[in-house]
Structure formats: C-alpha cells, structure tokens
C-alpha cells in the first residue's frame, strides 16, 4: 500500500451490487477477505442497514468462517446512541475489514451518519488501510450522494429519483446495485440528468467494483459495472415537466465486465495496467479519488 | 418535399417499435396517414413478415379505415413468385404509403428480398415520395443490415447476435424494436461491439422514428428511441471468447423521447430546428442518409 496517495486513503473500497454468493464458491467475499489481509484479518460486519441484525450476522459470520477468517465480530446498532459507543467505534477502527450488509441505505445513514462509528470507519480506511466493503444498500451508502428513492422507469424521467447524504467514502459518484437484474439504467440516467457532475456506477449482482483509492479500479464477479458519464451531456431536464421523459444527448457509457482492471496511477515500482482509454480516464479518476492525477493527465478532458 | 435531396429519397421512413395503438387514439398510425397524404392517400399493407395474412390485414384495414383512409389495399405474398407479380409491384409503386406489419423479418426478406415488390418499394420512396412504414419485424427489416437472431442478454456478449441482409431503405443502422419493454440494450450493444460502423437505434413500443431522408429525424409516440454509437468505442471483442461478456468503453448514447426532432439540413425556405448538438449530428446524418451534409459539417467528428 502506498502512503503518499493523493486521495489520502490507504485502504480499498469493495462495492458489491448485492446478491453475492455466500454459500458456494464465494468468489466475491473471498476476494474481500484477501484484501482485508486473509484469514488473520479482523473483520467487522456492520448490519445497521437491516432490521434483521441476528439473521444478517449469522449469514456473514458463517460465510467468513467458511473462508477461514477467525476474528469475526459485529454489534447491534439499533440507535444513534449505539452508534456513538466508544467501544464499538474502537473495534471498527481496529478492524482490517468492515463489511456493510444490505437493507435500507436510509436506515443505515439515519443510524450511523456523523457518529463515532462513521468516523471510525473513515479513519480505519484512511489511517489503517482497512478494506471497507458494502453490498446492496451497504454499497449505495458508500458515496457522498446516495439514491434514497427511485422508481426503476425504463426511461429516464424527471422528478422520480431522490438523493440523500451518504457516507462519503467516495464522492462524485452515485452507486446503484442489482443493476442489470433490476433494469436500473433508466433510473441511473435520471440521476445523471439532474446531477451531471456525478458519475453513475451501476453494479450487477454477485459483482464487486474494487476501488484502489488514488490508483484505479477493478471489477470481479459474475456481472459488470456500467458507468454513465453525463459531463458532456445535453438534456432538456430544466425545461421538462415533472414525470416527463427526458432527452439525453451525448451520454458516455462504459461497460466493464468482471476482469476489467484499470490503474490510472501505478504505484512506485509496480507495473501499470494497460493504458487507460481517454474518456474512461476521468471517470476512473473520479471513482478512485484521483483528482490530482486526472488533472495532471491533461486537465479537463471533456472534449476527448 | 425537396427533390435535390442528397440521399436521393423523397419520401419519409416511418419506423415503429411494435405495439402501436390500433384501437384508441392511434397517435402513431395517424401520423403515418398524415405523412402519406391524409385520407386521400393510397395505403398498401404488406403482411409478408407474418404467416397470418388475413388477421394482419383485418387489423390494419380497420385501423386505417377508422383514420379516414379510403383507398386501402393488400395482397397475399406467400411465395417469391407472388413477390415477383407485376400487378402487385405496380400497386406498391403507385401507393402513397406502404406499411409493413410485424411477424418475422427473416420471413419477410426470404419472400420479398430482391423481388419486383422490393424494387417497387424503393422506387416509390425515391421517385414518388411515398412514405414507407414498418412496425416490429417490419421495422427491423428496413435497414441494410438487420438483426436475425439475438438473445436479449442483459450484458453485451460475444457471438449471441446474428445479422442478415435487410431491405436497405436505410443503411449504417441496426434497428431494434420493443426496445425498453424487452430490455434489449445489451443485445444492441452486442451488435455494436461486433459492428462499430453501424449505429444502433432501439425503438420503444407505440413509438415511431420518422426519418426525413436527407433532412433529419423526429420521434413520436409513447416511448423513446435509444441511439448507441460505437464509432469511438474501445472493446475487447476481438480477444474475447465466444459467449464472454464484452468490455465496451466510450460508447456514446443518445436517448430521444417523443417530441425530439432534429433537422441536420433544413430544406430551402424552411426554418432549421434547434441546432443539432455535436456528437448527435453524425448519428442523425447516418440515420437520415446525409453523408454529404455530415461531411460538409466538419468531416469526421469522432473527436467531438
């Protein structure tokens, strides 16, 4: 791990589109464990997005045990008071990996947003290089702006999606999950139409977008990550009526299936991945918090 | 209508994504009738894509009658011999509108491709300014290259779509229909990955893409037209294994809902539509056969 990372993060983000295999080959979770440091890692399962703490914990406790992880823990976070608990916050800070389960991202933020636990998670990522993972609601919650409501219209439509404040582990990105399975492109385009500064990243089930902060991204699992970039887009959003279908011209779309891996900035002594195509470079820079590198690489490349 | 059109066509193309309303407001079909010349127009219904000639004819006969069209006709085309019939070809040539029903585009081409009827339809469009319409299979068949088989995978996949020779009323475009309803973006991207020279145009149900050859396009109806442009795209298509999910980077996507209208080349004395955004210009030029105009407008604009 590099310590001079321009993003200031040392750890990986591990963003899962929901429905990851927990019973059979556990490809996605097994990579999470590896990024946490393997069987010796301390992994904390944060279930606060869900109302079913015991069931969620049982699921992941069993899965991580099967993957050889010995030090597994959790805590019931049922109130903001719980989320301010110094002992639990300390446990999160000292974990090598934190995994946020599915549920409802609004619940998760309402419980932990701005609390000691939230702070501990950020510090674990930044200072200790912990790997922070989340699936489904736990994935959506990772960005600074998160989807809180959104009808999955097949076509992008004005006024049908709503954002809220997320955890801010990544910024300038909106994360959607169960993406191909629930046909959510229209809804993600609705977000982009209203917020062209944000990139859309739609993650399929049993698929993870791995962010190496300050470095690049990788996609693993069964599906793909769909990135929609509206920075060059023209739209009638402002003039459209509420619930009207939107016109979007010049959206840039990247479809990155499992196996895709791009490093924008190779670490010292490490070989760079294949060159990153223009157009994709800024998108990855935004996702992986490589503002400086993207700027160094040619500044505003909206014209590429 | 202009006669000095660079495409050499005088008539409109009327490309419907299937499922157009035939019982109630008939918005789409009513516009077709208008473009054919209104109630006085002679409209020929070509059912050859379907095995159910009588049923198809009854449906459209009734719909066009309800729209006030007095001169409606059809013919049973059950063999290539029928499609070579001089009398039927003459009737098509003299029609003000020809409407191709749904069914199977392979059947349609197997019956009429290269016959007198095919020739008559082209000449009616080019010489007489007839409006040529098609819905569902009748829409797919209108392009030079048409989809003949394609599994609607959510993700673009190598080797899962197959093309055949279509009627060639438009070129450089692949038309897909029932587009949002049947979630066919993955399949259209599969085509583009393999054929980056072709634009993909996915048309929703009860929606028409109207092509004013040599001029521009318009979208009417309930849904939208999705245009995917892979000319700047980078893909691993060549190296991917059969049935492998494909990586696509830098696909340009345009979503044009009903109401969208762009003229690349305004006719003499007619006001131009609002300016056509760069990036969309070449796409519309390709759809509307405005090769010269697109070249005049700045040549290869892949960098815009």
Automatic annotation (TrEMBL), chains A, B:
Gene3D superfamilies on file: 3.40.50.880
GO MF: carboxypeptidase activity; peptidyl-dipeptidase activity; serine-type peptidase activity
Catalytic activity: [L-4-(L-arginin-2-N-yl)aspartate](n) + H2O = [L-4-(L-arginin-2-N-yl)aspartate](n-1) + L-4-(L-arginin-2-N-yl)aspartate
InterPro entries: Class_I_gatase-like, Peptidase_S51, Peptidase_S51_cyanophycinase
Active site (catalytic residues): 136, 178, 205
The EC number(s) this enzyme carries: 3.4.15.6
UniProt entry keywords in alphabetical sequence: Carboxypeptidase, Hydrolase, Protease, Serine protease
Main EC class the enzyme belongs to: hydrolase
Entries under CDD domains matching the protein: GAT1_cyanophycinase (cd03145)
Entry similarity comment: Belongs to the peptidase S51 family.
PANTHER family, per the entry: CYANOPHYCINASE
The protein, known as: Cyanophycinase
Biological source species: Piscinibacter koreensis
Upper taxonomic lineage: Bacteria, Pseudomonadati, Pseudomonadota, Betaproteobacteria, Burkholderiales
């Amino acid at each position: 791990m590099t310590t001079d990372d321009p993003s200031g993060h040392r750890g990986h983000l591990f963003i899962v589109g929901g429905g990851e295999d927990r019973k059979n080959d556990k490809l996605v979770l097994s990579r999470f464990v590896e990024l946490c440091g393997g069987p010796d890692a301390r992994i904390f399962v944060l279930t606060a997005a869900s109302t079913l703490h015991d069931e969620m914990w049982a699921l992941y406790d069993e899965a991580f045990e099967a993957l050889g992880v010995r030090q597994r823990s959790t805590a019931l976070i049922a109130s903001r008071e719980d989320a301010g608990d110094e002992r639990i916050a300390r446990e999160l800070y000292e974990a090598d990996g934190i995994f946020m389960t599915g549920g409802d991202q609004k619940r998760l933020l309402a419980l932990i947003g701005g609390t000691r636990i939230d702070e501990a998670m950020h510090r674990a990522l930044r200072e200790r290089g912990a790997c922070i993972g989340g699936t489904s609601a736990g994935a959506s919650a990772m960005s600074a702006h998160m989807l809180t409501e959104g009808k999955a219209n097949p076509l992008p439509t004005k006024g049908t999606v709503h954002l809220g404040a997320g955890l801010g582990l990544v910024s300038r990105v909106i994360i959607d999950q169960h993406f191909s399975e629930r046909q959510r492109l229209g809804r993600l385009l609705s977000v982009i139409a209203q917020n062209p500064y944000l990139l859309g990243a739609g993650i399929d089930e049993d698929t993870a977008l791995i962010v190496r902060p300050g470095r690049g991204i990788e996609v693993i699992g069964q599906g793909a990550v769909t990135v929609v970039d509206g920075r060059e887009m023209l739209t009638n959003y402002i003039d459209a009526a509420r619930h009207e279908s939107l016109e979007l011209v010049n959206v840039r779309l990247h479809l990155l299936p499992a196996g895709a891996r791009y490093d924008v900035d190779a670490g010292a002594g490490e070989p760079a991945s294949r060159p990153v195509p223009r157009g994709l470079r800024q998108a990855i820079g935004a996702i992986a918090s490589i503002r400086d590198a993207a700027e160094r690489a040619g500044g505003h490349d909206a014209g590429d």
